[in-house]
Amino acid sequence: MKKYAIIVAGGSGSRMRSNLPKQFIEIGRLPVLMHTLIRFKEAFADIDLILVLPESQFDFWKELCQKHHFTVAHQLVKGGNSRFQSGKNGLAVIETDGIVAVHDGVRPFVSKDIIRESFEVAQAKGTAVVSVASKDSVRVNGQAIDRQTVRLIQTPQTFQVSIIKKAFETEELSTFTDDASVVEFADFDINLIEGSYENIKITTPEDLEWAEIILKRNA
Ligand SMILES: Nc1ccn([C@@H]2O[C@H](COP(=O)(O)OP(=O)(O)OP(=O)(O)O)[C@@H](O)[C@H]2O)c(=O)n1
Ligand SMILES: C[C@](O)(CO)[C@H](O)COP(=O)(O)O
Predict the structure, then answer these.
(1) What's the total number of domains in the chain?
(2) What Gene3D superfamilies is this protein classified in (predicted)?
């Protein structure tokens, strides 16, 4: 089975309010994005890594790779104006069938076990989307609902290549917040698998403090 991971890091990171794009901020002396790429390479030595970045950041990224002697092989692909477009650009360079995980570049703490399980489930069932239970009570439009029915969606979101490619033939809709919503819109079933509360998405400044704590816990 040919394995791919599209690491999307083409966003603007506006909620981080940092001059340095959040994927390049160092945690434990290594840029966030390098931690993420290393996790996937550790899960599968033979995986093809596709890194989606704004084209304007290519040179800076290459400088960072030299500075940190970062040798994990990956293909650089230019980002789009939305996460959907960035994912689509990543998919466009995949030419064989197989299994592909799409993962936020800013989720550096995904475990090898979760990555591997997502590939196994996607191979068997076509799709595998990582999720966790809500630890808080939940209300929708002010109305309390049974939180047992709620799942918080993370990445990786892993698919048979033929399925996700077919799904991305659609026009982009504003309801597409992740790849699972695109694939579901194309009428494929979404299989949820168990994620981890450590698999945070670095979004706002305090997430960087959590990130340092998680990194120390894992050391
Ligand atoms: N045009 C875009 C927008 C988002 N992403 C990626 O999708 C992931 C999840 O998005 P988020 O964390 O929300 O990043 P941003 O969109 O960059 O952040 P913000 O909404 O705060 O601007 C990130 O790795 C981000 O780089 C992308 O590849 N291309
Ligand atoms: C894909 C995702 O990380 C799943 O939780 C999330 O939907 C990304 O959303 P954002 O608006 O780009 O933060």
Answers:
(1) 1
(2) Spore Coat Polysaccharide Biosynthesis Protein SpsA, Chain A (3.90.550.10)
| Whether residue 52 has its Cβ less than 6 Å from ligand 1 | yes
The CATH number of the domain holding residue 205 is 3.90.550.10
Mean pLDDT on 118-142: 98
Is residue 204 lining ligand 2, measured as CB closer than 6 Å? Answer: no
ipTM: 0.96
Atom of ligand 2 nearest to the CA of 203: 13
- Model's pTM, two decimal places? 0.98
Nearest CA to ligand 2 atom 13: 203
Domain extent at residue 60: 3-218
Mean pLDDT of 2-7: 98
Those residues with Cβ within 8 angstroms of residue 13's Cβ, 6 or more apart along the chain or in another chain: 21, 22, 23, 106
Pocket of ligand 2 contains residue 89 by CB under 6 Å: no
Helices 32-43, 112-125: inter-axial angle, 10-degree rounding? 60
Q: Does the structure show a pLDDT above 90 at 88?
A: yes
